[in-house]
# Entry
Amino acid sequence: MFDIRQIQYFEAVYRLRSFSQAADEMHLTHAALTKSIKTLEHKWGVQLFHRTTRRVSPSAAGHRLYEKVPLFLAEAEALRQTAMREQRHIRLMCGPVVLDTLVHPALLALRAKYDDSRISAETKPPLEGLEDVLERRADLMLIHANTLKALPYGERLMVTPIVDEPYRVICCSGHEVLSGNRQLDDIIPHDWAIAGFDMFFQQTLPQPLAALLSTHDFPKYRLLSQTACLDLARQSDVLTLVPERSAVYLTRQDGLSSFAFPGPLRFTICAARVKNKATDTAEHGLLEEFIAALRAAA
# Structure
């Protein structure tokens, strides 16, 4: 078996006679495209290209394969279009906080208009999620703007702002931190549970804040679940951080209190997708409506 994208990548390399140019055209890294072609060659037990430091030339097997490729890809696209007429599918990558705060309100808004569509949302580390978007395994990535700035290949993405709002600290009612000054130097030494907080986000922090967090090994618990962080805050003296929209709802529940996070951080989320990605009209419309629903929910 093989992945149809491997044939698309082969076609681009054959036509352009260049792995670098083909990677650019397919919105991939050079390493990812090279690995894909090597995997195809290994599976089939043939060499498709002769490679030197200066040029790439198809082998005899590569020439024979290319004779069949245009028709194969045309038929595959026709099959895809036929299937997509029956059902639209958005594949989404996002972090745990985004999943818990933004995605489901947007889904509710879409149900009436696109009741035959599907949306699959996965939580992955940022670089893995970005690779899925660049390699067309995902259609959209919802990501903190700071994290996106620290990731590579930003020039290949179309970015749409979704939400920009403050963070609030969540703690159990009666927590000692509520009777203090609630400044960074006072609250950071406590134990924290944070959903996400990946290395790329940390690279964008202002130096004084980064130094303070490092001094206190912040956070004590880094989890891939906002719900788990909130349960820890509700049942112990652990603090957590949520967007303002979530705090309004959460503090209506028994056992939780909140206050404004005093540091220079905001919940700033954007939608990132591959520039110039070829999609059929209906699929493109669903994606645009989903992004609009995310912004409206914000």
User: Anything to note?
Assistant: Residues 60 and 197 are 50 Å apart (CA to CA).
